[in-house]
Specification:
Number of domains: 1
Structural class: alpha+beta
Order of helices and strands: HEEEHHHEEHHEHE
Radius of gyration: 16 Å
CATH architecture: 2-Layer Sandwich
Number of strands: 7
Protein name: 4-vinyl reductase 4VR domain-containing protein
CATH topology: Muramoyl-pentapeptide Carboxypeptidase, domain 2
Length: about 170
């Protein structure tokens, strides 16, 4: 069982779900992503960009909490396990010297959106940005290179690249 699933506290009296100080909310993917269908194309794109930025910033607090325990590939294992435990699909990350690749099977965002003209898994891109920025100790650029909602494939693919020649810090 995923470690986060074991840590989650469902406090029905308070009406909240928590992992320590981090509060979560359950929402069906079709409800969240269906809201995008209510928007014109330009607004939809801005909302996706905002979701990515918000997830990178706010989800980054979870990444920092996990990194206080795990670093390097152990952190990646924790992030992948947590993603699955929270219903964000099955993640596999591959770390290179200046890039972090992510493959997601069963993205709830692609599934909840349905067929799309472009990539829609912005929250996953945001979380990947937070993880990669921590690992590379600097700014990164994230791209969703294949979205199951766009290409009607079984997986979504992402790449995060260190910017300005940054790469993994050497361990001393």
């Amino acid at each position: 069982m995923s470690a986060i699933v074991q840590r989650l506290v469902f406090d029905v009296a308070a009406g909240e779900i928590r992992d320590g100080q981090r509060r979560y909310v359950l929402i069906r993917p079709d409800v969240l992503m269906g809201a995008l269908h209510e928007l014109d194309g330009a607004t939809r794109q801005r909302v996706l960009e905002a979701l990515a930025a918000s997830t990178e910033r706010n989800g980054g607090r979870s990444v920092h909490a996990y990194a206080s325990i795990d670093r390097g590939t152990a952190l990646l294992d924790t992030i992948c396990d947590t993603a699955a435990g929270l219903g964000w699909g099955r993640w596999h990350m591959s770390l290179g010297a200046d890039r972090l690749d992510l493959t997601v099977h069963n993205s709830p965002f692609a599934h909840g959106h349905g067929k799309a003209a472009r990539a829609v898994c912005a929250p996953i891109a945001g979380m990947l940005g937070s993880v990669a920025a921590m690992l590379f100790e600097g700014p990164v650029r994230v791209e969703e290179t294949g979205c199951a909602a766009h290409v009607a494939g079984p997986v979504c693919r992402f790449v995060a690249r260190a910017q300005s020649g940054a790469s993994l810090p050497t361990q001393s």
